């Protein structure tokens, strides 16, 4: 038979009672436990740093939002002042235009005096029979001097 078949199937390949083997396993176990503790501490430090940075970013974001809101309110106030000033200036300009139009109308009326306008002249010519008299005179002149 072979050496492998000579062994008891319940027998472990490394005997548990071997003192060197036990001490090696204990050292490996202690190293693994220490490594796991170190990883746990590193995870805690990482989590703390991540939380600190998230808090810093959130504080910066909140500060920027506050600044933007403040600037937006300032801009709105400036816009309202500008709109009010624009309306005031538009009213002043319209008043000035109306005054100048009134002055021009007044100067035209005074320069014309009592002169008749075009409509008044046309009414006088056609309404008073002057046109018929002038035409009769012209026709008489043409007939007699021919």
Structure description:
This protein has 146 residues and is mainly alpha-helical. The chain is 85% helix and 0% strand. The chain is built from four helices and no strands. The protein has helices at residues 3-6, 19-112, 118-128, 130-144.
Kindly list the characteristics that best describe this protein:
single chain, 146 residues, mainly alpha, 2 domains
- DSSP strand content: under 5%
Helix content: over 70%
What's the structural domain tally? 2
| Number of helical elements | 4
Describe the biggest sheet? none
Low-confidence stretches: none
- Global structural class: mainly alpha
Rounded average pLDDT: 84
What's the total number of strands?
0
N-to-C span: 170 Å
Query: Which word captures the global form?
Result: rod-shaped
Query: In angstroms, what is the radius of gyration?
Result: 57 Å
- Succession of helices and strands: HHHH
TL;DR of this structure?
By secondary structure, the protein is mainly alpha-helical.
Explain the layout of strands and helices.
Elements: H1 3-6, H2 19-112, H3 118-128, H4 130-144
């Amino acid at each position: 038979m072979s050496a492998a078949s000579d062994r008891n199937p319940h027998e472990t390949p490394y005997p548990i009672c071997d003192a060197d083997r036990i001490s090696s396993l204990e050292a490996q176990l202690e190293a693994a436990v220490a490594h796991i503790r170190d990883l746990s501490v590193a995870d805690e430090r990482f989590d703390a740093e991540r939380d600190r940075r998230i808090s810093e970013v959130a504080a910066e974001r909140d500060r920027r939002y506050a600044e933007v809101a403040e600037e937006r309110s300032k801009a709105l106030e400036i816009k309202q002042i500008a709109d009010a000033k624009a309306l005031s200036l538009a009213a002043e300009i319209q008043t000035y235009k109306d005054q100048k139009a009134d002055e021009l109308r007044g100067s035209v009326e005074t320069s014309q005096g009592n002169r008749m306008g075009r409509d008044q002249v046309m009414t006088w010519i056609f309404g008073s029979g002057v046109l018929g008299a002038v035409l009769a005179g012209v026709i008489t002149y043409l007939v007699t001097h021919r």
